[in-house]
Amino acid sequence: MASRSLREPTVSGTDTDTGDEGVRGTCDDASLCKRFAVSVGYWHDPYIQHFVRLSKERKAPEINRGYFARVHGVNQLLKAFLKKTECNCQVINLGAGMDTTFWKLKDENLLPKKYFEIDFPMIVTRKLYNIKAKSSLSKPIQEVHSEESFQLDGHVLDSKRFAIVGADLRDLNKMEEKLKKCNMNTQLPTLLVAECVLVYMTPEQSANLIKWAANTFETAMFINYEQVNMDDKFGQIMVENLRRRQCDLAGVETCKSLDSQKQRLLSNGWEKAFAIDMMELYSSLPRAEVGRY
């Protein structure tokens, strides 16, 4: 995770290319894993059921615990940022997939000034279909600004506090143009979140995105959840399994270590960077929570 111009940083298009099909498939993989973990009580999320059907296939406890740690860790950082800025900020979720954070933050009265999501247009279209079809998803968006209706068409949802944009993170000009049409404010403190996103981009493409984020906003923080130690046996098996599914980890060379992850941020415009592995994160989780499993 990286930060710039924040006094006390917390730890930190189009999809026509046939090579992107495997990457889009990882959205379903992650959503199914989260849906199952929620169904067996690892954390509370009443909204994910509207986006993902419950699979008959049970997930191993190790997978459930891994997703629990991931969700808990990102949420801790997100809420720390919101409290630090007193919600006078914006959040941009890069490669958001079927994420439900907007609805959960609304329930907790922790919405930022505006919450943005970006993903492939094909994924956004699916998500918008579910929002249209489920009043439990559309009503909370309307309730935030009852005096006006929200725009929901094509690859875009735009409202006063929430926007979902269909764009390719590798095409920064088009992505930025679409965000600005949805009133992205570069003067507001901004939190950018990327969960297993950058690894599917080439090092040059991810560097451009990281640099754009560092240079665009006056005050910003970047949370990146991603693989490390990919040179070991487990990492090699992971890469090979994904290749068999026609999903290439184009950015795997930046995932060699915690240090390589930090250096990528520091060399592309960020003033400070901090990194921990999931074992350290898991050991820091509330013992009462861990003890439930």
UniProtKB/TrEMBL annotation:
Pfam assignment, any one: LCM
GO molecular function: protein C-terminal leucine carboxyl O-methyltransferase activity
Catalytic activity: [phosphatase 2A protein]-C-terminal L-leucine + S-adenosyl-L-methionine = [phosphatase 2A protein]-C-terminal L-leucine methyl ester + S-adenosyl-L-homocysteine
Database matches in Gene3D superfamilies: Vaccinia Virus protein VP39 (3.40.50.150)
Keywords for this protein: Methyltransferase, S-adenosyl-L-methionine, Transferase
GO cellular component: cytosol
UniProt: S-adenosyl-L-methionine binding residues: 70, 95, 168-169, 195
EC number of the protein: 2.1.1.233
Family under the similarity heading: Belongs to the methyltransferase superfamily. LCMT family.
Name of the protein in its database record: Leucine carboxyl methyltransferase 1
Classification lineage: Eukaryota, Metazoa, Chordata, Craniata, Vertebrata
Name of encoding gene: LCMT1
